[in-house]
Amino acid sequence: MVSLPRAGRMSLILLFILWNVMKVQAVSYRARPESMTVREGQTVTLRCAFIGLTSQSVVIWEGPPNFNVMSTDRRVDSLYKRHRITGNSGAGEYSMEIADVQVADEGGYRCSTLGLQEKAEMMLNVIVPIKKPPKIVVRDTSIFAGQSLTLSCRTAEGSPLPTLTWFNGTTQVKQSNKKLAEGVAMASLDLVLSELTRWDDGRNFSCMADQGYPQLAAATASSTILNVKYSPVVRIRSQSIQASEGETLDLSCDVDSNPQAAVSWRKLGGDIPANAENRGGTLRLLTLDRTAAGVYQCQANNGIAPSGVGSATLTVQYPPHITSNFNRKTSPFVGQEGFSLLCEAEGYPEPRVRWRRKGTKLYFGNPLQFSRIDYDMEGDYECVASNGQMRNAVRQIFLDVRGKPYINTVSLKVSVRSGDTARLVCEILSDPLPEETRWLRRGPGQQDKPVTASQRPGIREEETTSPRGVTNTLVISHVGRSDGGVYVCETTNTFGTFQREFHMDVKDTNTQSVVIASVTVIVLLILFATIFVCIAKRTGLSTGVNKSREKTTGSTLTASRALPPLPPYLDARSSPAMDPDCDMDGLELQDFNGTLKPRPPPRVDKQPYSIGLSYPSLMHPLPPYSTVERQRPDGEDNMLDSPYPEDPWETEVT
């Protein structure tokens, strides 16, 4: 072997060392360690791989605390029993596997070897999930409306400490930061409610703890429901109620309170009906009557002032009721002035009170007033009270007119033929009935002499009596001209005497014969003239006359079109005066200034008793009242209990 000089050997050694140094500096990371977050108890692998390692290269792992050396090459220090090096050394893989990761494993790690320009570091974060939800602490146990309240949310569990958040239902309210209490890590968050109301009762407040790693540790939450105590609040569903008599009614009272309130009812200014059923928030009134109307109060009390009060006003509708206690009969005197009848009634709605003559639809106001009493006002009158929705109330009174007699005969002039029988009728109204009735004949000098049967044969009196008076008839048979003149009917009762004159005119029989003959001649002349006109029309006499008239007027008048037909009442063919053979279906014509017009149908005389008056000679154009008004049937009086059918139109006199 050739030995090199010493200087040569040193050169070779230096070259060898330089080559190795250059070789070492060529090492680099193929897999750099990266920071990781794991959950406590899991197994984690911290990856680390190199390029350019040699058999002399040494890989070192350093870790917490303070980057202590944990392993050299593939050998792990005995202090780290849960740690080991994994991977293919020939491929430069030196990963650190940690089983059952603990919080103590959290920290910085470094994997390195000689020749690296920069040593890569990583952080291992160990998450310890919260085992229990955060705790909510309420500082005040008794909570009343109007007070403030503080809710505290706390937790000392978990790593890292969670972030706390308050929610009102699903709405976020406030968020906290971690706080330390006496060297112990603790998260705490307060929620302050400045002034509670009854609306806060039953509200759900929740506190959520979130560590920020939902894939490793789920968020947890605690909640509390507020129990806010407050005084009763009362609400009446309807403050104004109308009901009809006989109905069943429920008065409802809604109460909002905490704690629950006791509910009671009372009626202002009176007692609750004895048959009422108190069901707490509901008061049932059975079979209402008018006395149940009034103001009802619902009162709720739960021990927290003030008590709750609600009111409802009940009005009960009921049919009219006449309260006036007038007698069944009243007796005014003939000639009495300013007499009136007052009728009072109650009901709801307030009834309208009117008067009417029984059996009529003619209404008068209230009170019923008479300007002057006459016998024709005697009869039954009815007070009618109506309120438009229910049956009417009717009370009757009889107006019994008393006083001196009154002769009510309509015809005071009598015409009789000589030889016939004359009847002078004296109709007497009297209450009391006449004590004496006699006939007198008025002679010269206004001297009245009694007419008696002894004066001459054929004179007699006929008398009939009724509750209203007496009808006395003087009968004179075979009347002669000497029987004509003025007769006086005189009647007397307790209150006085009344007379009325009758004029009797006796006509001679011969004069009547002359009048009859004259009328007969005139009728015959009219009949002959009518027959002549008809014959002339049928034989053509009138045709020639018409043609001559046409020739005379034809030179000056030219008809451009046919004239319109005449109205039926002007058409000659329809005129009974021009053609008695034509039928006019009973149409009567009359002449108005040369023009024929249909005569109106015969007037049916109004029944003078249509308003219940019994004595037509004393009837006024209207009863002694001032105003007449027409009233439709849809007015207020539906006459449900009246025995008389309603007229489609009513006449009211006020």
UniProtKB/TrEMBL annotation:
Pfam families: ig (PF00047), Ig_3 (PF13927), V-set (PF07686). One of its GO terms (biological process) is cell-cell adhesion. Residues 1-26 form the signal peptide. One of its GO terms (cellular component) is plasma membrane. It is found in: Membrane. PANTHER family: MAM DOMAIN-CONTAINING GLYCOSYLPHOSPHATIDYLINOSITOL ANCHOR PROTEIN 1, NEPHRIN. This is Basement membrane-specific heparan sulfate proteoglycan core protein-like. It comes from Branchiostoma floridae (Florida lancelet).
